[in-house]
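Dear support,

I submitted the protein below through the web form. The confirmation email said the job was done, but the results page showed an empty box. After a refresh the structure appeared. I'm attaching both so you can tell me whether what I see now is the final result or a partial one.
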Amino acid sequence: MQDVIVGVIVLLLFYLLILAVGVIAAWKFKAKPGTSKTEMSVVAGRNISTTVGVFTMTATLVGGGYVNGTAESIATQGLMWTLAPFGIFLGLVLGGLFFAKPMREKRYLTMMDPFQQRYGDTVTALLYLTSFVGDVCWSASILSALGTSLSVIIELDVTVSIVVSSLIAVIYTTVGQMVAVAYTDIVQLVLIVLGLAIVTPFAMTNENAGDITAKATDWLGEPIAPKQIAAWVDLFIAMILGSIPWQSYFQRVLSVRGARQAQVLSVVGGLSALIMMVPPMLIGAVAVSADWNSTELGQSPADRQEAHMTLPYVLKYFTPKAVSILGLGAITAAVMSSTDSAILGSSSMFTHNVYSKVFRKKATEEELQWVQRVAIVIVGTIATVIALFFSTVYFLFILAADLVFVVLMPQLICILYVPFSNAYGALVGYFMALLLRFGAGESTLNISPFIEYPGYTSQDGQLFPYRVVTFIISMVVIVAVSLLTNWMMKTSEACRSCDFLRQCRSNHGNSWQIEDDKATKGDIYEANF
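What the results page shows now:
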């Protein structure tokens, strides 16, 4: 009972520290002259320094799903199939090279802005829904990781743990929004680094932990079987490109002072996240090599069908109590640093791209501030509810990246690098991606496959690289349908009259252009007829 009280006190002190930092940062942060309230709340007035940007990017990436999920995956599948950390690193390098600069140079407020300016509200709303689902799945995986950790280490009720942690994140995100999130991330990242750096050596040197080098074959994973190579490559590419089209990523890219800084924080943040995978990887290795018969569990978490609790169980049984509480602080920091980012990201897009552009085009700055606060509470609540009903961590984390890869990444590439793409191509490509992806089935959601790709068996599942193929087909469809509809609207008055997505308008006789009455300052994107 004494240990529980100590753990709760430490947790409360941590929560108070984070809450205080968030509130003080929002109070002290100085906006540049001429900065609107919306710009302050969404991108911190574009005045975040490169150093703070790297801290907030790294802390956002290294969430509870990342830390707990890496340990879980190492213990169950081995390093060979623990692809998310490597994928995130490579994805952010690509993001810095090809996506951060054009987005920052055009001074967008959210990831949805370029879509709304060219495609209009209908397509933007659909893309927002996909991004929203990705955010809440990501947040849920993170909160679930914290709930299981608290329940194991200090025997706190899972529901209470998840609800309280979500509530604290919602409070300081509501108060300070992007400024509060960025500066609390600094404290949280320091706690993550210190906590994991302290607990990992204790876990590895415990007398019952075993020698991880002796079991290296188990936790490194067996060589990939020839029939699984395509599936492995498929998942790896999904993890790489699926780490880019996130509002939480672009929110940091758009918050720094220039395009060059945006590229730097992307690459350095990805590298920092890759380094941070080492402690949970070693903890997963300890879980494989440890003598679980010496504990009251009697068998490993994987054998108990509790692989998602690998990290908290290792901390509980193979480190001193005080050390395990420090580890708990690291997990809590990791959870908070990503939860607030996902919640703020979805609420920002809803406020700026849905509410102010669709429902209330004449909304005042003050009204939008209150809408965003309400949206933060709603998104946080939805993520909390999902976290209470999903037991796995890593696979919910993977599902989120998987979904944004097949649906959003083709759209992002086309909006930035295919100037003639239009809303019709985007719309058909969107539904094509959903059909092909969910046709392959999804065990996390208990969806059985209704498309059996080449090589499918009931025992092995889908061995075909269906994610990458879906991504490619979606992008080809966007380009092809855009070219076709552009040609049709150029040559046929009847087609122009049926332009329900309002992609064209007449301009001096027979010249036609992509219409963009949603764009700031009346920008018009020319169609390459």
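Response: this is the final, complete result; the empty box was a page-load delay. Residues 506-511, 514-529 have pLDDT under 50 and may be disordered.
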